[in-house]
Design brief:
The chain has helices spanning 28-38, 60-77, 95-105, 117-128, 142-146, 151-157, 185-191, 203-217, 227-237, 242-258, 266-286, 290-304, 312-325, 333-345, 371-379, 394-397; strands at 50-54, 82-88, 134-140, 167-174, 194-198, 310-311, 349-355, 361-367. With 400 residues, it is an alpha/beta fold. The protein has three domains: 28-198, P-loop containing nucleotide triphosphate hydrolases (Rossmann fold); 201-284, Orthogonal Bundle (Helicase, Ruva Protein, domain 3); 288-399, Arc Repressor Mutant, subunit A (Orthogonal Bundle). A hairpin with a 5-residue loop joins strand 7 (349-355) and strand 8 (361-367). Helix 10 packs across helix 11. The longest helix has 21 residues, at 266-286. The two termini are 51 Å apart. The protein binds a DNA duplex (22 and 22 nucleotides) through residues 94-96, 116-117, 148-149, 289, 291, 311-313, 329, 331-335, 337-338, 341, 353-363.
Length: 400
DNA sequence: CCTCCACCGGAACGTGAGGAGT
DNA sequence: ACTCCTCACGTTCCGGTGGAGG
């Protein structure tokens, strides 16, 4: 039955973040800058190391991937050996893993664990130096790597002194503009020889990008006129995040399909916006530490029994009772306020300090997520299950 | 105008798990 | 195999405070 429906999509993959389009719109300046720096590789020189900055969804990864492919193509034509390696530091987040992965790209067999790090490094240097070549290492999400120490970067940045034939240069990609503050000054100056900034897209630019992709992703005429501008507008509010815009466009289509509509309409975009937000929250809540879940559950309970403004003291009282109910350690109030601040940061609750004069100073906490679905997610945690039938104590209920 | 509530939030410290170095 | 470090998570201690009520 579901299968009988014709899909609205021609090729949904085009809307996924992993897809790299052939033409990148509105990033000419960045592409040019990078190209100018990297052409020296084609002449057999070592290009400067580069740092790329820009928030999520500003095209950093797409541009570097694109440039990498172009460069390898060109180098083949010109018969220069130039290799571009793409490493995502979110996955490969330790010195060992990075070096092991690099070495493996050259056919070395390195075990997952067991070798001393410097031995892996030596092996890597030896293999790449066997012939004359330029190696460009793209380190995506480099800030993730730096958090675990910048030794790798230091080592890699001075690897050229040990090499006779080949040359290594690095491209760091980061969405944290301030991450260099944590770097060793030597690494900082060597890595940041050149910097390229990726500004957020504006709504117009996002619209262009969406049109380009929609043409390949959707069948002709299935998009209402307002769909693309609306996706663009939502994403532009969200600091010009093109990835978000593509997500919206894809999810809107999926929702329209589910309703068996022949066209994607404006309302589907709105629902998509909502769905993405809810999915995000569900994911965040699901992966919360148990104590935080319990605190959140407490806030839910209080809200559910009629409280508009929940205060720290009230939360802590109930929290303690819940703890003993399910046999968990009772944290101090100090700690619980910190947990609540974290929930605030995550956008799950909203906490404001208010003064009630004679009656002290406290934080008023309100929920910024839907009660029912959040509760649903929380009780999925087996440790919180026994709380499902917990009733508010009388003393508290009378407070209404 | 002063008081004093009920908490805020900084600082220093304790602990145990997990990596890196040797 | 061993120690040393770091880091996340918690605790203890405590000085600080906006404003209703006196």
């Amino acid at each position: 039955m579901l299968l009988e429906n014709e899909s609205l999509f021609k090729n949904k993959e085009v809307l996924r973040p992993s897809y790299t389009p052939d033409f990148l719109l509105h990033r000419d300046e960045q592409i040019n800058n990078l190209a100018i720096i990297l052409v020296s590789a084609l002449r057999g020189d070592t290009p400067s190391n580069i740092l790329l900055y820009g928030k999520t969804g500003t095209g950093k990864t797409a541009v570097t991937r694109h440039i990498g492919i172009e460069l390898e193509k060109k180098s083949e034509e010109m018969d220069v050996s130039c290799i571009v390696l793409y490493m995502n530091c979110e996955v490969i987040d330790t010195q060992y893993r990075l070096l092991a992965n690099l070495a493996r790209q050259f056919g070395e067999e390195i075990p997952m664990t067991g070798w001393p790090t410097d031995q892996v490094f030596a092996r890597f240097k030896k293999t790449i130096d066997e012939k004359k070549q330029i190696i460009i290492i793209i380190l995506d999400e480099i800030d993730k790597l730096v958090k675990k120490g910048d030794d790798v970067l230091y080592n890699l940045s001075r690897v050229n002194t040990d090499l006779k034939n080949s040359k290594v240069s690095m491209i760091g990609v980061s969405n944290d503009l301030k991450f260099t503050e944590f770097l060793d000054p030597r690494v900082k100056s060597s890595l940041g020889e050149e910097e390229v900034i990726f500004p957020p897209y504006d709504a117009e630019q996002i619209s262009d990008i969406l049109r380009q992709r929609a043409e390949k992703a959707y069948k002709d005429g299935v998009l209402d006129d307002m769909v693309i501008p609306l996706c663009a507008a939502f994403a532009a509010q969200e600091h010009g995040d093109a990835r978000r815009a593509l997500d919206l466009l894809r999810v809107a289509g999926e929702l329209a399909e589910r309703e068996n509509k022949p066209k994607v309409e404006e309302k589907h975009v709105r629902s998509a916006q909502e769905k993405i937000e809810i999915d995000r929250i569900v994911e965040v809540v699901r992966t919360l530490p148990t104590q935080s879940k319990l605190v959140l559950y407490t806030i839910l309970l209080l809200r559910n029994s009629g409280y508009r403004n929940v205060t720290t003291g009230e939360v802590y009282n109930i929290y303690r009772q819940l703890c003993s109910r399910i046999d968990m350690d009772v944290l101090t109030q100090r700690r619980v306020t910190d947990l609540m601040s974290e929930l605030d940061m995550l956008g799950i609750v909203n906490a404001v300090v208010v003064s009630k004069g004679r009656y002290g100073r406290t934080k008023e906490i309100s929920l910024s997520v839907p009660v029912a679905s959040t509760r649903q997610v929380l009780v999925e945690d087996y440790r919180l299950k026994p709380l499902m039938d917990f009733k508010m104590p009388m003393a508290v209920q009378m407070h209404l």
